[in-house]
Specification:
26 helices; alpha/beta; single chain; 9-stranded mixed sheet; Rossmann fold
Length: 762
Amino acid sequence: MPVSFPTVSIVVNTYNRGPWLDDALRGLAGLDYPAFEVIVVNGPSTDNSAEVIARWGGAIKALTCDQANLSVSRNVGIAAAAGDIIAFIDDDAVPHPQWLRRLVARYDDAAVGAVGGFTVDNTGTRWQMRKTLCDRFGNAHHVSDYFDERPLNRPGTPFYPSLLGTNSSFRASALREVGGFDHVFAYLLDETDVCLRLVDAGWQVHFEPDALVWHQFAPSHIRSGNRVARTLYPSAVSRGYFITRHGGAADLVAAGEALDVFRRDLLAVNARFERDGVIDAAHHHALDEDLVRGLAEGQRLAMAGGARPGGDLATVATGAPGPFVRFAAAPGRRIALISQGWPPDNDSGIARWTQLVAKGLIARGHKVHVLTKAAAAATADAAESVVFCDGLWVHRLLPDADLAPAAQERYGLPAGLGAWAMRVWREARFLKSFGVDLFSFPIWDLEGLPLLDDPDLTTVVSLHTTYAMARPFKPEWQERPLLGARHVEPVIAAEKALLERAPWLLANSHAIIDEIAVTYGLDVGPRARVVPHGTPDPLTTREFEACARENQALTGAPLRVLFVGRFEPRKGFDIAARVARGLIDESDVEVWFAGGELDEDARATLASVGAEAIAAHPQVRFMGLLDRAALDDAYVAADLALMPSRFESFGLVAIEAMAAGRPVLALDAGGLGEIAREDHGARAFADGDDVARAIVAEIEALDGDRLELRRRGQRARAAWQEHYSIAAMIAGLEAFYASVIAGKAAPRAEQAVGAECERAVA
């Protein structure tokens, strides 16, 4: 028989938090629940909140509240809620995909009037709130996760379960029976008051530990981003009102004592904040005044209200809720990408590719997690975090040294790589609860190797340059025999073991599949799919500059050649140096070098090829390490891209240059040969003693025929648009990931991806 699910109305109350609100709604789109609606109640916001809400259109119920009062806003949401259950989540919070399923399961008991989950704080790794009891003076008492709250659910109880507003749900009929929220509680204790009134009315309030919410702690009009109060007045009113109304009804003397304790404690906190430099004297004075005035006003309102029952829902709800508006959750897959590097802290090729894939998949409606190393992971104060931002879950993790021996024993991994791989595996186990459909990790450093042993995980290995491929170009590896024996050789052995058994491989070029066959003696073609990398369009914001440079080139400006890459032999830095040396002797061509520092090793390379003179030559410029924007500026400011790398599994620099409309000169090595084609406006050269001279001749020919240079740039740009744009890459990845998730074997590497891309787009 089909399973019947209670309908749920999720209420999000917001006030001047547009950026966080958009993420909160994106998080709700990731929920795994068949029948829920989303109600957004916008306070008197003056930021872009209304624009954010408008972008969601008819997918949500959009309402307004003319007061900066959370309880009024909550009642506006309740009045519009058509669901059997009403759940609340803050505008700076994101739920676990199973949040509603876990909460709703507790309502099988007809006596249950409210259920709340556990909440993670803004670090994403520590608890903000788990099981909490409150007394009738509003004091919170934290208890063990194993504490059974059920016996406390009885009218008149001195202690009762109290839920956190950002992770709470209520049976709609129960919430309406007690009158919803009390408008005096503008902020603080609003949900505590509701829980107490529900318990006194005979309803049960329960906790559900597996209903998780991540709370970001955005700044508000009453607190700063570091959680320091801007004003204490609203919360002091709430506290004075709660203690007098609930505590005073049982014991006036105890209520007075509770008010005195609260006042003394807050005054002491304010004094300490000034003493520690958190606030200044004026702020301290204002907070003290807010506290005294607020407590007095809360007491006055409680005494003026007398024994009036319930909350103030009736003053807002003037009719029946409108029809239930089912929220359409994101239809895409949930995919986890693993990369120890992540921009801007790390801008390596794998890190950039991972970020581009993540953003591209999110834009196509998929739910994406990235598992990466915490910034400054090697320092003592480094910390883990889990943050949801711009629709992306980023898990910043620290290597698990305790599990490194297990990785050494099972896979032969060196300690550092093993510690990281095992931490990734632990996080992947946690993410099983999210329903991740597929994990993808790079072969470099074997970051996700343990995932292959978990039958519950579907895993893809992306093929990039491996240790075995890089070894011929790493003289430092060969000069240090202990490094080779203890690190390089074990990694290469583990790479081969992985390649022998990984069920699905993602290749960025046919060349890397061929190189694996040569290097490891393995034919991985039947398990691999070729999806070329894509890169963003730098001309989105630089079209004028690109056209201006092309016109300068046509009108006789000195030709400008750009080399991008690390200053090492594998990247062909020595060849580029010889090219520069040849050009400055015979022409006014300028040569720019980006991607490395002109340090002692780089100067030694220049000396080894007789190119010391270029280090201080006016036609040569060493630009150092560039960030993404500066590098795109450099492509646009150049006329040609020089990439004489001796091996690239793909050749990301080449397509970055092509995206800027700049033709590429490269070596016919590795994946570069598949990109640097004549129909792409490029030219690939065979490596050899005369390669620098041949490249110089090609540059001089283009220097003399600027129209041909322009035609080649146009072909480069067109080839990028057709084959190497982000849209083309994501379409290919979607098709491949879909086939993997469906359990189909990947087709042979020789197969074109065009038809698969068309099906993915359709």
